[in-house]
């Protein structure tokens, strides 16, 4: 019988209850959403680019250039910080395993955010790699179907610089993990 060389990791069970997730949304997410205004003609922007291409750094500049001064900046990586167990799991198991373990809960929070965005017709900028064409086009089509105007901004970077950026981010994450755990970074 052939053995699969690569397989999807098993999806972890949720760590938090519906009530705990509702509290996180109410306490940590809703206040930021409540500062945003509903729009008659809402806009959705996808800011894409390879890892290490400074999307996070550029997101406010791109939003400003597109006239989105009142927009939710939706970076999926940021949502893991909302999970009360993520930091401890990252220290114990590494960030990839922590993301896998917290992922089902974070997906519930993300779904609640998207529901609120669409219900209130808020401007939104999604920040991510957006390398999967089917997923990217699906997201654009879904927002267009809801009456949003859509735009795509993409960062480009020489592959060598992209790898340096990824390595630098990894080095900083390790340094932070050692500092948090009380270990020397030397």
UniProtKB/TrEMBL annotation:
<dbReference type="GO" id="GO:0016301">
    <property type="term" value="F:kinase activity"/>
</dbReference>
<keyword id="KW-0547">Nucleotide-binding</keyword>
<dbReference type="Pfam" id="PF06414">
    <property type="entry name" value="Zeta_toxin"/>
</dbReference>
<feature type="domain" description="Zeta toxin">
    <location>
        <begin position="37"/>
        <end position="172"/>
    </location>
</feature>
<protein>
    <recommendedName>
        <fullName>UDP-N-acetylglucosamine kinase</fullName>
        <ecNumber>2.7.1.176</ecNumber>
    </recommendedName>
</protein>
<keyword id="KW-0067">ATP-binding</keyword>
<dbReference type="InterPro" id="IPR010488">
    <property type="entry name" value="Zeta_toxin_domain"/>
</dbReference>
<dbReference type="GO" id="GO:0005524">
    <property type="term" value="F:ATP binding"/>
</dbReference>
<dbReference type="InterPro" id="IPR027417">
    <property type="entry name" value="P-loop_NTPase"/>
</dbReference>
<comment type="similarity">
    <text>Belongs to the zeta toxin family.</text>
</comment>
């Amino acid at each position: 019988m052939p053995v699969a060389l690569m397989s999807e990791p098993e999806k972890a069970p949720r760590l938090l209850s519906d009530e705990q997730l509702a509290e996180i949304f109410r306490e940590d997410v809703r206040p930021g959403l409540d500062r945003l205004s509903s729009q008659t003609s809402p806009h959705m922007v996808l800011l894409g680019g390879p890892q290490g291409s400074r999307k996070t750094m550029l997101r406010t500049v791109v939003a400003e250039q597109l006239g989105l001064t009142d927009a939710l900046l939706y970076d999926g990586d940021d949502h893991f910080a909302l999970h009360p167990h993520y930091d401890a799991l990252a220290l114990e198991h590494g960030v990839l395993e922590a993301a896998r373990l917290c992922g089902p809960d974070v997906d519930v929070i993300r779904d609640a955010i998207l529901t609120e965005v669409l219900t209130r017709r808020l401007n939104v900028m999604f920040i991510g790699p957006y390398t999967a064409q089917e997923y990217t086009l699906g997201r654009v089509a879904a927002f267009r179907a809801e009456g949003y105007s859509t735009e795509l901004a993409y960062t480009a970077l020489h592959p060598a610089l992209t790898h340096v950026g990824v390595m630098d981010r990894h080095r900083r994450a390790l340094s932070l993990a050692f500092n948090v755990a009380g270990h020397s970074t030397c």
